[in-house]
Amino acid sequence: MTRIALLTTAIVTGLMVTTGANAFGGAQGSLERPSFAQIDTDGDGKVTAEEMQALPATMASERFKAADTDGDGKISKEELTAAMTQMRETRDAERAERMISRFDADKDGTVSEQEMLDGMGQGRKASPGERFIAMADTDKDGAVSEEEFAAAAERMEQRHARSDRDQKGRGGKGGWDGRDNDRMPFWRN
């Protein structure tokens, strides 16, 4: 019963956090997951449902204080803009670092055009072209006709429209890090 209550709390918290994140410019970088100690506010070595429920407010309060640079207890348009800009810059820098790490085969801290081309599709079972053919080639002749292409484009458009409606219903556009169909983890705020 306790596990169900904690799981339910985590899910509800994740949904609440998704909406709150957009108030300060969207989700943050992947390294901002709270530590166990931050969630376990009474320090008893256990995370309770009450502590999980308090997490979004705690994180929002911390963000509010960080954004309120003049300390007047209110956030001006300028303060909010600066906070949102800083969060985006942090997120973009983390994304760039991940991309360099992924593509930089010679580990010189840069990515050459050849390294980028060599790294595309890295870690995937099939290339993007192979995945597209497998998805769109409904008659399984190994090629995509104009009709199959149009049908695949329509399916993708419908899926994208559903995804947009789903994301807008939760207050967002795109996933927690800007990629479509990603779901924001419960610790995001």
In short:
By secondary structure, the chain is an all-alpha fold. Helix content is 59%, strand content 0%.
Q: What does this protein look like?
A:
This protein is mostly helical and 189 residues long. It has one domain (2-169). The protein contains seven helices and no strands. Helix 1 runs parallel beside helix 3. The model is unreliable at 5-13, 15-31 and 171-189 (pLDDT under 50).
Main traits of this protein?
elongated, 59% helix, mainly alpha, disordered C terminus, 7 helices
Q: What is the total domain count?
A: 1
Uncertain segments of ≥5 residues (pLDDT<50)? 5-13, 15-31, 171-189
Q: Major β-sheet, in short?
A: none
**C-alpha Rg, in Å?**
21 Å
Using the alpha-carbon principal axes, give the shape: elongated
What is the helix/strand order?
HHHHHHH
Please bin the fraction of helical residues: 55-70%
Mean pLDDT: 76
Alpha-carbon distance between the termini? 27 Å
- Helical/strand content category: mainly alpha
Number of strands: 0
